[in-house]
Structure formats: structure tokens, C-alpha cells
DNA sequence: CGCAAACTTGATGGCCGTCAAGCAAAGTGG
DNA sequence: CCACTTTGCTTGACGGCCATCAAGTTTGCG
């Protein structure tokens, strides 16, 4: 699959995973006006004009959504990879309840709400694709809630790794149970409600057991069955097709 | 505000909180065909025809959404009170990833997807109201993620009580910092990722400190400021207006 | 009044947090 | 190319929050 040269081609392909677009729809996406910016790792993603009348699209790199508490603690709410629309929810309800930040150096495109709304109005397929994205995000939130509330550290790691692998695979960014893993142990800890110290110990144990290799920003899942089983992982919520 | 006699009046008023409906919209909601059922406490909410081509509306009583793990543990994902639409997300993406159950005896109405979709197609206000409901649900999920990941038991309780009180107040089901509290300590534990034993101890402490009274299914918040402060509660995510 | 469900309390232990220190890796500048 | 710094990883010691197990007690309801 040769990627289209258009920067938003990645979004068109992503949305078309679930909905059948006409050539017109496809073209309309790719002709959306965008401002693209390259951000260094660990930078907040902020709307320059402060109007927050845009949605952002991840074109390259990894990002996350997070909330901060007064004591300085951070909870990561989701990770995002190329093709994702982390704040599509803002389309009809601005006033974000979370921050966004890059994990790696990343290329991010900003698309005006006005144009996205027009797309949704003119094309039922587009409206449905947007709805679907938001609903899948909510389903992913639910999976995280259950992980945070009722799984121990080892199971949490297993569940997150399974989720990330399948999402990357669906985006043609991973295969053969090998994937890039730019997340620091500190990021993993903030996503799973743990400390980085404990994170380190749990990872060591799981590595020792032969569940996976994790070094130089690369994760190789050695025993997918065991990992998925430890997590009680059910990929249905991701709605990746298959 | 005298409630309309129509069973779906409660939904119309709820959706109208955020969106301006015409009299036509209003009437269209109230004329939706529904099947209403009364369920005893602690019963699963199941679609009889198995097609799950319906959304449900809580008319009376409390319900919850949950996920189960293999070891029998339960994670509650959300609580729902009269006027709520717990599974509106199924409208354009069936295949639920969670179960629903009553907390108290409850009256639940089932509305066919077909009619809801037609409403959304014919009225932009309606479409926006649905979108908004789904997005607020996701925002609530995010608040729970942060609670589960980064707050201790005491803060979790404080946060949940603040959320529930404001939602009930907005539905005219609570006031003066007094609200019904039908949740068992076991339910609270399953929502907050704790055991019921620990739940009991934490509640006792908070009661002793004078934060609230909690007996005979009634919660009286004695010190709202202290409770909200302990939770670092910011009501913005609920989008209740005001 | 009797049963079941829910609440309460104590004792004990483990998972994970905190504090502290040292090591490794990666980038920076001279 | 090598000091130097920064960031991230690793490990040990210790403690606390919360889970587990095991009684009781209270509440609610038929």
C-alpha cells in the first residue's frame, strides 16, 4: 500500500478502515486546509491562536493526552500514533478537559472545526466516521478504567502492550510482534497508575519470564498468547476490523 | 418545573439542557416508540430480542455500566440516574464492550436505533445533542481514569461523591447538599477499584472527620468545600451549565 | 420473628510507594 | 575524541496503603 503523498492521506485511510468513502469524500479530506507543525519530544501541544477551534491530527510520532493533579502527579489518558485524532471530541463541545503532549518528536496537523463540521454535514459517511472515532475512544477509556481499577501491575503492562501492538499493526507501523516503543518507563508508569520504580521492576520480571524483549526503543513480544492471557485481552473494543 | 406526563419528557428536558430544541424536536422525542420495563435491583439490563438495536433510557432509579474479569472481579465504569442514556454510543457502532445493570429497582425505556437515527438526520439540534452526550460520557471516563490511577481511596470517594451530587442536582434529584445514595459499599468499591472492607474504613474516617453523613441510603455532605478540595474536584467536565 | 444481605471490626500480609544511591546512555561542547 | 551534563534505567531498604481472611453485628424485609 503506497501511502498517498498528501499529508492527510493517513487520516483518510484511517477513517476508511470502517466506513466506505466515495472518491469525493476521500478528496475532501485531503483538501482540508491544515497547518502542520513539527514538535520536539515532551512538548505540550497547544493551539497557537488560543481559540482551540481546531482538531489535531497526528501525522508522525507518538503523543499522549493527560491530566495533572495538584501534587504534580500526572495521569496519562491515552496514547496516540500516526492517523489518530486525539481531540476530535472538541468538534461540537470545546473546552478540553485534558492536555496533549508529544512523546517523541512529532508532526502534528491542525484542522479548523469549521471545515470538519462542513464535511460532516455534507457527507453521512463522514459524520459516521467521526462518530465512530469518538465512540472507539470512549471504549478505549473504559478498557483503561478496568485496567486501572482491577488489574495488578503485571496485568496492566500486558494489557497496554497488547493494545498498542494491535493499533500499530493496524496502522502498518508494526508486525511480527515487533513494534517501536518510544515510551519511557516514566510514561508507562503515568499511564498505568504506578511509579517508575515499580514499573522498572515489573518490566524486568516480565522480560525475565520471556514474555517480551524491550530495549533500545523496540518491543518484541516473544509470547503473544501468554501476554494476552495475562491481560485477559479482548481486542474487540478497538474495532480494528480483522 | 412541572415534569411533563410523557415518560420521555425527562430525556427531552435533559437534552434541552445544552441544546435549543424546537417544539417539533421536543414533540418528536416524546413520540418515540418505547418499551418500558421495571427491573428489580441488581439485575442485568438485557435486550430481549438480542438484536441490541436499541438504546436505553433511565426513567427512574439508578443503574451502572460494568466490566467483569475472569477472577470474578467487577469494575464499574459509570453510574446512571434518571434522564441518562447509558448506551447512546451504540447508535452507530453496536457491539457493546460492557454490561449494564440496575443498582436500585429501576424503570428503563428501550428506544429503537432506527427512530433515533431518523431524529438525528432530521434535526441538527438533535444530532448535536447526541454527540454532546457521548462526548460528556467520554470526559467522565477520563475523570475516572485519573481518579483510579492517581488518587488514594479517600480522594476517590470525595471525587465520586462530588460528581454524583452535581449530576443529581442538575436533574433536580438533590439539593442542599443532600442526595439519595442507594450505592452499597460494595458498589462504591467496585467503582473505585477498592475492596468493600477498605471502603468501609475510609467511609468511617471521612464520616468521623465531619465531611458527610451517610446512613439509610442518604448522603448529606456537611462540608462541600473540604470534600471538593480533597478531591481536587473541577466540575467543568460534567458540562452541566452554570 | 427469622433469614439474608449489608455493614463493621480485627489481625495479618503483600503489592507497590518512597527515599536514596549508583549506573548507563545519549547528547554537548571544547 | 573525550570531559561533562542530562536523562533515563536499575537496584536496595523500608514503610504504608490497601487486600485478604475471618469473625461478629446491624439492617432490612417477608
Automatic annotation (TrEMBL), chains A, B:
GO biological process: regulation of DNA-templated transcription
InterPro entries: cNMP-bd_dom (IPR000595), cNMP-bd_dom_sf (IPR018490), HTH_CRP (IPR012318), RmlC-like_jellyroll (IPR014710), WH-like_DNA-bd_sf (IPR036388), WH_DNA-bd_sf (IPR036390)
Domain HTH crp-type: 151-225
GO MF annotation, one: kinase activity
Record flagged with keyword Metal-binding: no
Pfam families: cNMP_binding (PF00027), HTH_Crp_2 (PF13545)
Superkingdom field: Bacteria
Keyword annotations of the record: DNA-binding, Kinase, Transcription, Transcription regulation, Transferase
Keyword Metal-binding belongs to the record: no
Annotated Gene3D superfamilies: Jelly Rolls, Winged helix-like DNA-binding domain superfamily/Winged helix DNA-binding domain
Name by which UniProt lists this protein: cAMP-binding domain of CRP or a regulatory subunit of cAMP-dependent protein kinases
Organism placement in taxonomy: Bacteria, Pseudomonadati, Pseudomonadota, Alphaproteobacteria, Hyphomicrobiales
Amino acid at each position: 500500500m503506497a501511502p498517498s503523498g498528501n499529508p492527510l492521506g493517513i487520516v483518510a485511510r484511517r477513517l476508511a478502515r470502517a466506513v466506505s468513502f466515495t472518491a469525493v469524500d476521500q478528496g475532501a479530506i485531503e483538501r482540508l486546509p491544515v497547518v502542520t507543525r513539527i514538535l520536539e519530544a515532551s512538548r505540550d501541544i497547544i493551539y497557537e491562536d488560543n481559540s482551540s477551534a481546531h482538531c489535531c491530527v497526528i501525522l508522525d510520532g507518538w503523543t499522549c493526552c493527560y491530566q495533572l493533579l495538584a501534587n504534580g502527579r500526572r495521569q496519562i489518558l491515552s496514547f496516540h500514533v500516526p492517523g489518530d485524532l486525539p481531540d476530535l471530541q472538541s468538534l461540537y463541545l470545546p473546552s478540553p478537559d485534558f492536555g496533549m503532549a508529544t512523546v517523541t518528536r512529532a508532526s502534528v496537523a491542525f484542522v479548523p472545526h469549521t471545515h470538519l463540521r462542513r464535511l460532516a454535514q455534507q457527507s453521512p459517511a463522514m459524520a459516521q466516521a467521526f462518530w465512530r472515532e469518538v465512540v472507539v475512544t470512549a471504549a478505549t477509556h473504559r478498557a483503561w478504567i478496568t485496567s486501572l481499577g482491577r488489574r495488578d501491575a503485571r496485568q496492566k503492562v500486558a494489557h497496554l502492550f497488547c493494545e498498542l501492538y494491535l493499533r500499530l499493526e493496524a496502522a502498518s507501523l508494526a508486525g511480527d510482534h515487533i513494534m517501536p516503543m518510544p515510551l519511557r518507563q516514566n510514561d508507562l508508569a503515568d499511564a498505568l497508575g504506578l511509579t517508575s520504580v515499580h514499573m522498572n521492576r515489573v518490566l524486568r520480571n516480565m522480560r525475565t519470564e520471556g514474555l517480551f524483549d524491550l530495549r533500545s526503543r523496540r518491543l518484541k513480544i516473544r509470547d503473544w498468547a501468554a501476554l494476552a492471557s495475562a491481560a485477559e485481552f479482548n481486542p474487540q473494543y478497538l474495532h480494528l476490523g480483522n
